[in-house]
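Exercise: predict the fold of this chain.
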Amino acid sequence: MVAALELYLDTVATRRIRVLWDALEAEGVQSLRSLLEQRHRPHVSLAVAPRLDPEQVAAALAGTTVAAPLRLTFQHAGQFVGRVLWLGPAPTTELLTHHRLVHDRLTAAGVELVEHYRPGHWVPHCTLSMRVPNTLMAIAVRRCLEILPLEATVVGAALTDHARGISHPLP
C-alpha cells in the first residue's frame, strides 16, 4: 500500500488529462481512470511513503502552503521501469524548491519517505498508466504527445491513501 502527498491541477488541465485517460483506454491501455474504483484524479505526487499519518503530516506542514499556485508546463511523456507511463512537467526552480521545502518539513518531523521521491532523485510526473502492455507503449506515447505541451496550475493538495480510503485536504 502507498500513501502520497498529491498536488491537483486546474480544471482545464484535469479535463485534458482525463480525455487522455479515455484515449488510452480506447487503445487498450488501462489508465488511472479505471484503477481503484475511479478514485484517482490527475496529480503530481510530492512525497510517497508506505503509510502517512494525516495528523503527523498536517503538523509537519503547519504554516506551509502545500497547494502553492505553481505553474506547470508538461512537456514530455516518459516511462518508468515496470511499464509506468507518465507526463512530465518542466522541473522549474519554483517546483523543485517547493518539493524540497515540503520534503524537508516532513523528514524533520520523522516522516519516512520513499527514496525515489527525495530531492535529487524525484522525477516530477503525472502518472497516466501503471500497466502499459509493451506492444502498446508506442501507441500510448503517441497519444500523450498529442496533448503536449500542457499548461497547468496547482490548485489543491491532499494526503491520500486510496487503498485505505484516505483523502485529507491540505492547504
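Check your answer against the key: The beta strands are 3-9, 43-49, 71-80, 84-89, 126-129, 150-161, 166-170.
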